[in-house]
Amino acid sequence: MEPTATNDVLDPVERMPQEKLKDLQHKRLQNLLPKVYENSPLIRDLWDNAGVSPLQTCTMDDFFRRAPFMNKDTIREFRDQHDDPMGGFVRMDEPGLKGVYTTSGTTGDPTPLPRGYRSPFETGFARDHWHFGVRPGDYILQFAFTFRSGSKYQASRMLGVKPICLSHGPDMIPRMIEALDRFKPTLLNFLSSPMLIALERYFEETGLDPVKVFAPLKSLIYGGEPLSPRHRKMLKSWDVDVFQNGPLGDVCSASTCRAHDGFHGYEDLALIECLEPFGDQPVADGEIGEMVVTTLCEPFVPLIRFRTDDLCTIDRSPCACGRTHLKFKILGRKGDQTFVQGISILPQDIRMIIEEHKPTRSGLFQIIRPSPQLEILSLRVGYAPDFVEGGLDALNRALGAVIEQALGVPVKLDMVSEQELLKLGPPHKIPRVTKQ
Amino acid sequence: MTTFAAEPPIIISTTEINGEKQFLLYSDPEANRAALTWERLLSKTSIKRGEYTIVITAPEDAHLAMPLERTLELTGVIILQADSTQYEAQRVEAFIRNFDPVAIFGINAAIVSGLSSLGHNVGKLLNTRQVWATDDGFAALQHMKDIRLRRWSRFGPAVLISCGHHETAMHIDDTEWDISTESHQTTLRHRLNAAEPDPVILTHAKMTRLNELCPCGLTDPLVDVSAFNKPR
After folding, report:
1. What CA–CA distance (Å, rounded) separates B173 from A350?
2. Which of A180, A241, B1, B76 has the maximum number of C-beta atoms within 10 A of its C-beta?
């Protein structure tokens, strides 16, 4: 059955009017807060230290005024101070606890994510996949970097679809193509920047036509980091409908929709605020702020007013896809923001310059940053040795000059081969900012 | 032997047959039966409800991981998940240090190598735990003393699990599989409903069935894996 306007959403809550959504958020919060205050050593410690109890947050205004903030360091500090591997989210012997994931660790030491039988991630994946055109009986290609039966697989069972499970890595490309040809999956979940780099090479070397390879797909999910302009253009030339997916501060997932104009945050699963990056007051819709999220239904990972470190803008205008939940755009991590001679620079500012040059078209680089304030922008840039013409020094000088001109700051480049740079991260991304 | 109609798959995993990687369609009844096999085996161990375990797998090992994880969840054992790549060695070490797991399933050569290259004493990390290793993980660990080492192995689409009472022999679920071996060829036939009901012929692979009862008390037959002669 082809998706129609009324069939575009799996759960009617996705079209719930904003007023009703706000009421639902309030009810869920009132239900959740006493439970997590009782069961989560971290929340109890945090709220007690702030002199706040759930009884004092009966209205949403009370909540916004009184509830203390937390961030990843809060969790790490609690874990280290109390020798608690759960980071204080739940007790080690919490009834109903099924397992513990950990975050990827891109921004530091991985933090724990305990899980029960279900999680809001599963709910989000199921809604997203349905919206992307997946229907019961379909095959989907799970090109994931981990086998997490508790999340993605359960979403597949919810929808009655058959996941083809493959590891996320360049050596799996032939198997991925074989699976596309044999099973005709309707969704590929997901491709990352390193995979796009590898696929571009693979198609060039084999002469295979990406349009034909990806023809069975109704949709393809991209994730790991923001999609760069060059990769967006490349995917468009492959004639696939691309949706982006990313986490909503470890509370649940978020994806772009058919309108392709930002990520939808599921407001029945998460309370989303956009606050001053270095303050605690809300910024107006459309202005840049830090995303702060609160789970509304996950007692095992009680992220309450969790400062995500993501800089974003919020859009609450009606969406063409029919969903009523807010949309947001991610501009980068607050912690990745680097000031060179007082000028603010985010990784995406650099990426779009680097990837315009053939030897560095993969857009692989790291900002080497002992501290956020620098006098010279120091970059480690990955290059493809076989595309270098005229020597590495010439490339270094030419690229350095272009970056200096575009950003208006002095630049120092350390050129390393792409393969070496890719070894510095997990299979699906490299850390864009590093201390050394 | 009766052959049943193909069950709808719930997941597509990967197996290796005669040296070639192949997709393996896997159904819910198969997963449930394999989960029961794990339940029988784990009931003979000291692993208890509420204790922590690490499961190390790759996405394409779904038919191996899913039944084990079902059993662990149903029996109240808590799962810490890691991928079977060298990059994940750091996560595995952190899990061991922080959660003191009683068992580790699926440790392979990549993780062992990763732990060593991070400077850890692998024998010391593992020596109080029950460890089920993949074939290459078993090879990497078997020289280390004081590890309660078991094996979790593949034989085509079939899964072999050791209970720890035999050096080389492992249990196979003969409710699931009818096994016949002639010379250097073994044929595996599903006895019950499956997503891929056709027999699988493994050439250059010999499985010897031992006729003794295992001290662990399981009636799932023991097969001798020392006779494996895989093609190069």
Report:
1. 56
2. A180
The answer to whether A101 contacts chain B (CB < 8 Å) is yes
**DSSP string for residues in A100-152:** EEE---TTSS--EEEE-S--HHHHHHHHHHHHTT--TT-EEEEEESS--IIII
Under an 8 A CB cutoff, do B11 and A179 touch? no
Single-letter code of the amino acid located at A70:
M
Do A268 and A13 form a contact (C-beta atoms < 8 A)? yes
Separation of alpha carbons A23 and A32, rounded Å: 14
Peptide bond into A145 cis (omega under 30): no
- Nearest-angstrom CA–CA distance, B130 and B172: 19
Question: What is the token pair recorded at A267?
Answer: 């407001």
DSSP collapsed to 3 states, A46-106: HHHHHCCCHHHCCCHHHHHHHCCCECHHHHHHHHHHHCCCCCCCCCCCCCCCCEEEECCCC
The answer to whether B149 and B142 have CB atoms below 8 angstroms apart is yes
Q: Chain B window 109-168: which residues touch A at a Cβ cutoff of 8 Å?
A: none
Q: How far is CA B195 from CA B15, B24, B63, B66, B155, in A?
A: 14, 9, 12, 15, 18
Q: What is the mean pLDDT of chain A?
A: 91
User: CA-CA distance, A399 to A394, in Å (whole number)?
Assistant: 8
Least confident of A361-370, A396-405, A424-433, B122-131: A424-433
**What is the four-CA torsion angle of B127, B128, B131, B135, rounded to 10 degrees?**
10
Residues of chain A contacting B98 with CB distance shorter than 8 Å: 85
Given a contact cutoff of 8 angstroms between Cβ atoms, the answer to whether A151 and A125 are in contact is yes
Tell me the ipTM for this assembly. 0.93
Segment (H or E) for A31: helix A18-39
Half-sphere exposure of A134 (CA within 13 A, CB side): 31
- pLDDT-derived band at A174 (thresholds 50, 70, 90) equals very high
Number of Cβ atoms within 10 Å of the Cβ of B215:
11
Name the amino acid, one letter, at B228. F
Segments of chain B scoring below 70 in pLDDT: 1-2, 225-232
Residue A1 confidence class, pLDDT cut points 50, 70, 90: very low
pLDDT, tens only, A189-211 = 999 998 999 999 999 999 999 99
A179 touches chain B (CB under 8 A): yes
What is the predicted pLDDT for the residue at A2?
A: 44
Q: Write the burial class of residue A326 (CB in 10 Å: 0-12 exposed, 13-18 middle, 19+ buried).
A: buried
Of B14, B60, B65, the CB nearest to A149: B65
Element (H, E) at B32: helix B28-42
Q: Chain A interface, mutation test: which of B20, B51, B70, B79, most A Cβ atoms within 10 Å?
A: B79
pTM: 0.91
C-alpha distances out from residue A123 to A143, A152, A185, A321, Å = 19, 9, 21, 19
Q: Are A32 and A299 in contact (CB under 8 A)?
A: yes
- A108 has a chain B CB within 8 A of its CB: no
Segment B141-181, tens digit of pLDDT:
999 988 999 999 999 999 999 998 887 899 999 999 999 98
The confidence score (pLDDT) of residue A93 equals 92
Count the helix, strand and coil residues of chain A and give each as a percent rounded to the nearest 5: 35, 25, 40
Q: Do strands A289-295 and A270-275 pair parallel, antiparallel, or not at all (unpaired)?
A: antiparallel
